[in-house]
Amino acid sequence: xxxxxxxxxxxxxxxxxxxxxxxxxxxxxxxxxxxxxxxxxxxxxxxxxxxxxxxxxxxxxxxxxxxxxxxxxxxxxxxxxxxxxxxxxxxxxxxxxxxxxxxxxxxxxxxxxxxxxxxxxxxxxxxxxxxxxxxxxxxxxxxxxxxxxxxxxxxxxxxxxxxxxxxxxxxxxxxxxxxxxxxxxxxxxxxxxxxxxxxxxxxxxxxxxxxxxxxxxxxxxxxxxxxxxxxxxxxxxxxxxxxxxxxxxxxxxxxxxxxxxxxxxxxxxxxxxxxxxxxxxxxxxxx
Length: 287
Prior knowledge:
The protein is α+β, with helices and mostly antiparallel strands.
């Protein structure tokens, strides 16, 4: 299989390739500064979103950590134990929004526990353990969850439902913000498998309504920052692996101290403004 970024116009492809060249140039200034925020790496952009109308620009204010009132202990909580460059860096605890998107939340939960065994489509374990974040961009998001290829190839993976590789979209009332997780689509709507997106942006409205948000990191936001720190437009500069994963019991939930106020030290990046449409593209998996 070859890489596919869907069909671009020739002029659009040339323009995006120039942006990628600018990003990888050693003379390029700090990409996190507001004046350079229009440069979007093409390895995260494919056709799919609705262009946004011009409107009031958002600020770069980072949303506060989740408060106890914002967290629903009736929802499943799962964990991902992360290593970077072979060294353990800590655990992310994630609340899954089963009260809003039950099918999507259950898919992720079961892929964390590995309870479904071997996938009938891929013949591989339906388990995130040992998989990597194969795509990490400091300015956008990380993508992981390829259970088929383990080391990561966008578009690989399988859902838990046994009726094919993918399942249909659910309506999501949640929007993207830093620390949210959403499904990475394979080329089109209703193509949710096992690959997922970990958002780094304070807001990412071009993904809202296209990618189903199913969870949020409620403990371990400093791990999100560590993952982001090893990203680059060409891919992770160190391997980021899910060493272990699973679901927390009710007793374990009661021992989790949230929120993580004050732990994340990295300064916030400017949120995406309403007049930035990313050339009408959204973050998706691709072959």
